[in-house]
Amino acid sequence: MAVQGVALVPLVFVVVAATGCCLAASSAIAMDRIPIRTISPADDVSPVKADLGRRLFTDRRFSDAGDVACVDCHDPMQGGADGRPTFRGTGGAVGDVNTPTVYNAAYNLAQGWIGRAETLRDQIDDHLADPRVFGTDWDALLDRLGGDPAIDGAFVAAYGNGPTRATATDALETYLRSLVTTGSPFDRFLGGDPTAISEDARAGYALFRAYGCAACHQGANLGGNLYQVLGVIRDYFADRSHDPAPADLGRYDMTGDARDRHLFRVPGLRRAASTAPYFHDGSIATLEEAIQVMAVYQLGRHLDGDQIRQIAAFLRSLEPD
Ligand code: HEC
Ligand code: HEC
After folding, report:
1. How far is the CA of 65 from the centre of ligand 2 (A)?
2. Closest to 217 in 3D by CA, of 302, 209, 5, 249
3. Which of 12, 217, 230, 303 to mutate to test the pocket of ligand 2 (most atoms within 8 A of CB)?
4. 207 C-alpha to center of ligand 2: Å?
5. Of the chain's two ends, which shows fewer C-beta atoms within 10 Å, N or C?
6. What is the pLDDT of residues 102-128, one digit of tens each?
7. Which residues line ligand 2 (CB under 6 A)?
8. Ligand 2 centre from 48 Cα, in Å?
9. Closest ligand 2 atom to 284 CA
10. How far apart are CA 201 and CA 212, in angstroms?
11. Is the peptide bond preceding residue 10 cis, with omega within 30 degrees of 0?
12. If phi over 0 gives left and psi between -120 and 50 gives alpha, with beta otherwise, what is residue 263?
């Protein structure tokens, strides 16, 4: 495989062009040293608490109107997302961003496209109060849950008392921490079985490292641990067909720091193959298009059909069996 021997990428290019960037390198990095690792399950997940969390995750009493549960946006059958360009919340409210997957979220340095929530519990609190998501508050929610003997009994079994804000949050958080996509073909490949993934996927993995995708999408979750600009090499927003929106500002929206314009958390890619459409704006319909957009706007490179197919095969090998 020709690309296998290409150990260095022009990472300088990326580092210089990206603002607010967290890459450690000041010069080119040997790509093989950029860690892409096997993902392992959280070791302290209580099955009773995770089960209760799973139950809460599907409970529509989370919304005042009783019309939306976590699972409506983060559906395990849709890779932990919703398959829509942007989310739909209580009362049919239309969201401004695409729904990210909840799988492997525990590995993120912060939650949401711009890291607005520092922790999983902050993300839950944000969602509860957000009028476009649940539009409720803890007192109202606990009133609704506390009146249900089945739910009350499940809380007593897991925590020794009925639902409180602390125990409901803990149960949901435990469930979220249990959502780790271990056991993918790619993990078996990393574990030493070269036949676990197809030849295309192996070639795609080599391209992913050689071209510098792995400079941003790295670690156990192939992302989630850095903030990077969308449009490092070329202006994604100028080329896009629809008008700029506040959500395009990226972390600038939170920090007000001009260097954070268009800065987004690099998403983990382990469920990317099943969570179309893509990007914070949900404007890219297919995995193949997303790969080309990344190559052009982040790396200044135009991929041919074979290269795209191979990288797509690699990304598909990250999906759990
Ligand atoms: C109406 C749709 C909707 C519902 C309902 C919803 N979410 Fe979300 N979720 C989103 C969106 C959109 C984001 C991204 C938010 C952002 O970027 O700030 C998100 C982000 C997250 C994240 C962070 C994922 C990541 O990669 O950044 C977690 C974890 C999460 N939600 C858990 C939950 C839980 C738990 C519930 C139920 C208590 C829930 N969500 C209900 C739409 C929803
Ligand atoms: C300079 C950093 C950087 C590089 C290099 C990079 N990416 Fe990304 N990638 C990002 C960021 C940031 C996002 C999120 C952008 C957004 O949503 O607005 C992203 C999003 C994606 C997505 C969409 C994920 C989703 O859930 O919507 C895919 C797929 C992806 N990248 C694949 C790749 C591939 C393949 C390469 C190499 C050809 C690559 N990336 C190179 C930073 C990078």
Report:
1. 36
2. 209
3. 217
4. 14
5. C
6. 999 999 999 999 999 999 999 999 999
7. 14, 18, 208, 211-213, 215-217, 228, 230, 232, 264, 266-267, 269, 272, 275, 278-280, 290-291, 294-295, 298-299, 311
8. 36
9. 27
10. 16
11. no
12. beta
pLDDT tens string, the chain, 321 residues long: the values are 333 333 333 333 333 333 333 343 333 344 445 589 999 998 889 999 999 999 999 999 999 999 999 999 999 999 999 999 999 999 999 999 999 999 999 999 999 999 999 999 999 999 999 999 999 999 999 999 988 999 999 999 999 999 999 999 999 999 999 999 999 999 999 999 999 999 999 999 999 999 999 999 999 999 999 999 999 999 999 998 888 899 999 999 999 999 999 999 999 999 999 999 999 999 999 999 999 999 999 999 999 999 999 999 999 999 998
Q: How many residues does the chain have?
A: 321
What one-letter code names the amino acid at 140? A
Longest dimension (CA), the chain: 65
| Residue whose token pair is 């914070």 | 280
* Ligand 2 atom having least distance to the Cα of 303: 38
Question: From atom 2 of ligand 1, which residue's Cα is the shortest distance away?
Answer: 73
